[in-house]
Amino acid sequence: MITVTRPFIPDRRRLQHYLDKACDSAWLTNNGPLVAELTERLEDFLAVRNLLLVANGTIALQVAFKALAIQGEAITTPFTFVATASALKWQGITPRFADIDRQSLTLDPSCVAAAISPKTSAIVPVNVYGLPCHHNRLEQIAREYRLKLIYDASHTFGARHGGRSLMALGDAATMSFHATKLFHTVEGGAITFRDRDIFERARKSINFGDATPNRSDVDALGINGKMSEIHAAFGLANLDVIDQIIQRRQAINLEYRRLLSQDLVFSVPEDQDNVSYCPVLLPSEECTKNVIAALEASSIHARRYFSPALHETREFGDGSQCPVASDVARRILCLPLYPDLELAEVKRISEIVKAALN
Amino acid sequence: MITVTRPFIPDRRRLQHYLDKACDSAWLTNNGPLVAELTERLEDFLAVRNLLLVANGTIALQVAFKALAIQGEAITTPFTFVATASALKWQGITPRFADIDRQSLTLDPSCVAAAISPKTSAIVPVNVYGLPCHHNRLEQIAREYRLKLIYDASHTFGARHGGRSLMALGDAATMSFHATKLFHTVEGGAITFRDRDIFERARKSINFGDATPNRSDVDALGINGKMSEIHAAFGLANLDVIDQIIQRRQAINLEYRRLLSQDLVFSVPEDQDNVSYCPVLLPSEECTKNVIAALEASSIHARRYFSPALHETREFGDGSQCPVASDVARRILCLPLYPDLELAEVKRISEIVKAALN
């Protein structure tokens, strides 16, 4: 069976090396040395600062929203994984959907501007598939209307634009390090903050507002948002070989492009591709379903990432019209992409896709 | 250095056995077989049903509150770890504090009844140190005022009262399996629900409202509240030897009682002790501070669990008067208790405590 993604499993001895550190010291969680090491190495690798590791990508969003005091409404994209919107709604913030543009698949700034209401306190763009958003215009709108700009940058691992890490933009940017991601910590996530004070507030908030032993007061609100040393151990073992992981994904990605780019549209331009996903846009929803069915018949599971568009769901539908997102969501398909996938399998998948297209 | 607690580290080969299962199958998270196995074995061991494993004890509380639609105000105890109150406040529910009674150190039902307002939607008692609450009276009040009853049962591992597991009471009961707990999964927690439908709602809510592949709609709200297979592996390795862990803690606890019960008050009656903590009540706050200082001088770190009482903190203070909680919080001290603690160390700690009392 071939799935759309498959967690990378680090070399066992390498993993053991890090796990032993945690077990030998009996320091299994609570901001230990492995989380500290992973933080430092990720700040280097991603060229960011004020990076905070957290328990998962949803907590990253929730902690960022709380640290930046988001309330009322936030404008976001309907073309994303459900977590972007549900992290808002869970905390009592209403997600308002603005449409995407066909090129970048990210928020269309003119649609964002049109969706602003007196209750709006934030814009939450998503760098879907690691694609850059219209940052300059979004920042301009945020400044003009005094809104916070918080990127859901869950897919941006390693992605840069104009020389800058996509994780370094906005008031905050959040990532997911879920097992299925390009880089993972089993479960995990991170937030980067522009402002050091907000970072400090968030840092305290993931440890119950700062649960130091024998404190004489509690003066801040918090939850448990901590990444464990054990999950950090997986992250360190994976980060040790991240270049190999990326190279392997690139090879697979190139093979798909070589075999399929005459037949269908790759949603991520080759020069912007951080190989986090391999999304292709099919001519119609019917065709998308045909391709899925043909692949399923060979036990190959492609995924309709990200469908349905959230403004069309029962949980989040609010009457918004986002025709581009609706159309793209109906025709998008992510092809299997993970380091262990053999090139021969890529060829077989591509042939099935091609045959189903005709 | 002796700390108040120290995570139990499972036998490495036993741990490896479970970790290999996850790594061999590349199933690292998302409700995998280890989480399923741990769920089943914990339901057996704790004599509960409808048990849902989650990422940590705070998420357990938050998911329970959401599944039971708690809003407005909830009445809880100020004599608890900050998470009980902060989990409410983070989700926009105002914690209202009612006093505890001196005997059980848990919510005094008459104080709960007096604190009910038209906005109250829940009572959140805490089984502090694994102690039973006044369940029958609390349930009566909850029924009379149509309130939900949600136990923060974070300390109750293995605790029973009147033949029933303390985890099996109320509309829901939550636990923490943090590394420092009697039973741990590094980071983790659990919720049990009385009602199967509410359990199902919560189960979906910890996976983004039910993130099944290629779903055609989203019809429920969720977050990422999942326990990973890796954390479940630690839980299984620990559960394999839980009887030994408990026996060892009992031996230490008995030694403290033998050496110190003539000199000070143990807050948990011997026949109700699930050996989750070893709290003693000192004659005065000054005396408590003296004992702490004397222990610190020998690099022994006792903890003022749970001080300050939350109604007296800047973050949660609301003018409530809870004189019993205030008094107990000033005089309580938890002595070091973990399986690796040597009886010779227990003796040394006890001698230092005794000397500081005079």
Automatic annotation (TrEMBL), chains A, B:
CDD domains: AHBA_syn (cd00616). The keyword Metal-binding does not apply. The active site is at 181 (proton acceptor). Pfam families: DegT_DnrJ_EryC1 (PF01041). Keywords: Pyridoxal phosphate. One of its GO terms (biological process) is polysaccharide biosynthetic process. InterPro entries: DegT/StrS_aminotransferase, PyrdxlP-dep_Trfase, PyrdxlP-dep_Trfase_major. The modification N6-(pyridoxal phosphate)lysine is found at residue 181. Belongs to the DegT/DnrJ/EryC1 family. This is dTDP-4-amino-4,6-dideoxygalactose transaminase. It comes from Marinobacter oulmenensis.
